[in-house]
């Protein structure tokens, strides 16, 4: 149970600098997926509170947008320092509401902080241009200006760092924001309010509302004073939000679902591929949008890869993320465990061979065994659908051409991975994969310095990299005449 006086826990929403309850006092219970215990209650805000949050962000925008990049970088650096100074406590809250092992939660806090530092640096490099003019008596300039009020809607799987990728560039660019964290993991979202306060960020620059997703989402996507919606979550919800945002022509960034293929060629270093597979699959219990969803393995190394992946999966220590040495926590909730079960049952009914795991874990609740299924075929559901659980289906292919066709046979285009030691193959496959993120002989590639984002139905826009801040800026073209030149 989180202690009621835990200084890192906020049970209220942050609107215009005030920590407030829902107007009608309604709350949502937050459960620890490892124990099933309710760890606290946060406001169940709705339309009225969200409108006030937008108004507060709007009111804070004129002054905030005029602060210097140096000043905004200083706030971001202070937030970064605060996060690292309080990494353990922030990670414990994250593990308690979300389930991931504490080591992963600490990693998430660290990478979130790293995004802030990156955007603190980027803030100071938002350059406009002086453009060669086609007119002798006029001059042309372009400037980059903050878009305005940003609405950020985030999922439960990375409840802290998904916000860092949105808040970091928003602050760096001079935007104010309204944040809606996922209802399963509101505490890591509300903690951002405390981080902002500790850094001295002006009131109203960051506002946080928790509550009913559809009500809050509707206000955020239709309110005329919101300039941009940035969302991480499912493609299904992303499409709804884009449709709503279209009514007032908002700028949108969407980080949506994936169906990541993980290709292993005959020429690969198999032990390296297995190590990469373990990280790309089981991190966060398989609940990431860049998780390997389909292992595609060439015939010559298929049996070896399957055997080694199954042995490594069996060896994973499953348990409460707060316990020492635990490598895989529970799934987010019972619904997620039940959904994972259906993928296994579907595969087995179509001839899939379970080499490791295959069922709910003996710990009960939403714990699920790390699972490997060989002889996967295209008619099995996980060939098309995102599993979001610790299940590794292994498909067999014969040729590189066949592998590329299988890898690209999806409406998604977020992350993909491949393992080879053949240089020509590296280039051919790298160029042939229709994805926004490609890991070559690496299973985890996310870093603030690089753009993270998908193509096709996996989304629009990039988070991080030199591209990340541009999503929060609009271009102004200025033509100066009457200069008497
Ligand atoms: P996940 O499977 O990761 O929960 P979702 O897309 O369902 O993915 O949810 C991601 C975020 O979007 C969460 O914060 C959730 O509360 C929010 N959300 C879900 N449905 C809606 C909706 N209709 N409008 C606005 N936000 C929504």
Based on the model shown, name its key terms.
485 residues, alpha/beta, 7-stranded mixed beta sheet, 6-stranded mixed beta sheet, 13 helices, 22 strands, 37% helix, binds adenosine-5'-diphosphate
Describe the protein in words:
By secondary structure, the protein is an alpha/beta fold. Helix content is 37%, strand content 21%. The protein has 13 helices and 22 strands. A hairpin with a 2-residue loop joins β1 and β2.
Poorly predicted ranges? none
Beta strand %: 15-25%
Termini separation comes to: 73 Å
Helix content percent band = 25-40%
Biggest sheet statistics: 7 strands, mixed
Radius of gyration, CA atoms, in whole angstroms:
23 Å
Structural class: alpha/beta
- How many beta-strand elements? 22
In spatial order, strands of the major sheet run: 14-15-16-13-12-18-19
Number of helices: 13
Overall average residue pLDDT: 97
In one word, what is the shape? Answer: globular
Bound molecules: adenosine-5'-diphosphate
In short:
With 485 residues, the chain is an alpha/beta fold. Helices cover 37% and strands 21% of the residues.
What is the topology?
Layout: E1 13-15, E2 18-20, E3 27-31, E4 38-43, H1 47-65, H2 69-85, H3 87-98, H4 102-123, E5 129-131, E6 139-146, E7 149-153, H5 161-173, E8 176-180, H6 186-198, E9 206-208, H7 213-222, E10 226-232, H8 235-246, E11 251-255, E12 260-264, H9 270-282, E13 292-298, H10 302-314, H11 334-349, E14 353-356, E15 371-374, E16 391-397, H12 400-408, E17 412-413, E18 415-419, H13 423-432, E19 437-440, E20 455-456, E21 459-460, E22 473-480
Parallel strand pairs: 7-8, 7-10, 8-9, 10-11, 12-13, 12-18, 13-16, 15-16, 18-19
Antiparallel strand pairs: 1-2, 3-4, 5-6, 6-22, 11-21, 14-15, 17-20
The chain binds adenosine-5'-diphosphate (ADP).
Residues 153-157, 180, 182-183, 213-214, 217, 233-234, 237, 240-241 line the site of adenosine-5'-diphosphate (ADP).
């Amino acid at each position: 149970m989180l202690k009621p006086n835990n200084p890192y826990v906020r049970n209220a929403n942050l609107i215009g600098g005030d920590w407030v309850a829902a107007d009608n006092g309604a709350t949502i219970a937050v459960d620890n997926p490892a124990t099933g215990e309710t760890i606290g209650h946060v406001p169940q805000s709705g339309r009225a509170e969200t409108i006030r949050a937008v108004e507060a962000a709007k009111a804070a925008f004129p002054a905030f947008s005029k602060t210097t990049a140096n000043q905004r970088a200083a706030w971001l650096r202070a937030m970064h320092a605060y996060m690292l100074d309080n990494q353990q406590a922030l990670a414990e809250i994250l593990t308690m509401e979300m389930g991931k092992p504490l080591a992963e939660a600490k990693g998430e806090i660290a990478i979130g902080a790293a995004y802030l530092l990156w955007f603190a640096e980027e803030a100071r490099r938002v350059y406009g241009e002086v453009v060669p003019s086609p007119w002798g008596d006029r001059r042309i300039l372009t400037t980059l200006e903050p878009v305005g009020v940003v609405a950020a809607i985030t999922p439960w799987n990375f409840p802290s760092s998904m916000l860092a990728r949105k808040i970091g560039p928003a602050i760096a660019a001079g935007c104010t924001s309204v944040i809606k964290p996922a209802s399963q993991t509101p505490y890591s979202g509300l903690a951002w309010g405390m981080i902002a306060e500790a850094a001295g960020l002006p009131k109203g620059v960051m506002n946080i509302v928790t509550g009913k997703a559809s009500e809050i989402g509707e206000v955020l996507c239709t309110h005329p004073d919101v300039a941009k919606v940035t969302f991480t979550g499912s493609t299904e919800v992303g499409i709804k939000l884009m449709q709503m945002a279209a009514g007032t022509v908002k700028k949108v960034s969407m980080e949506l679902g994936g169906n990541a293929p993980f290709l292993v060629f005959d020429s690969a270093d198999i032990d390296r591929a297995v190590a990469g597979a373990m990280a790309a699959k089981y991190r966060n219990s398989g609940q990431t949008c860049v998780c390997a969803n389909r292992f595609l393995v060439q015939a010559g190394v298929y049996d070896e890869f399957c055997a080694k992946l199954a042995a490594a999966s069996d060896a994973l220590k499953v348990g409460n993320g707060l316990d020492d040495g635990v490598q895989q926590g529970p799934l987010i909730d019972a619904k997620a465990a039940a959904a994972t079960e259906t993928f296994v049952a579907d595969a087995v009914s179509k001839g899939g061979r379970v080499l490791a795991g295959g069922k709910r874990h003996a710990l009960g609740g939403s714990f699920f065994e790390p699972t490997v299924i060989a002889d996967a075929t295209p008619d099995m559901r996980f060939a098309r659908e995102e599993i979001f659980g610790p299940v590794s289906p292994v498909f067999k292919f014969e040729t590189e051409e066949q592998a590329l066709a299988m890898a690209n046979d999806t409406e998604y285009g977020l992350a993909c991975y491949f393992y080879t030691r053949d240089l020509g193959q590296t280039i051919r496959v790298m160029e042939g994969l229709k994805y926004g993120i490609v890991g070559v002989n690496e299973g985890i590639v996310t870093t603030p310095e690089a753009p993270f984002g998908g193509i096709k139905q996996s989304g629009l826009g990039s988070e991080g990299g030199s591209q990340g801040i541009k999503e929060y800026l609009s271009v102004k073209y200025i033509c100066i005449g009457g200069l008497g030149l």
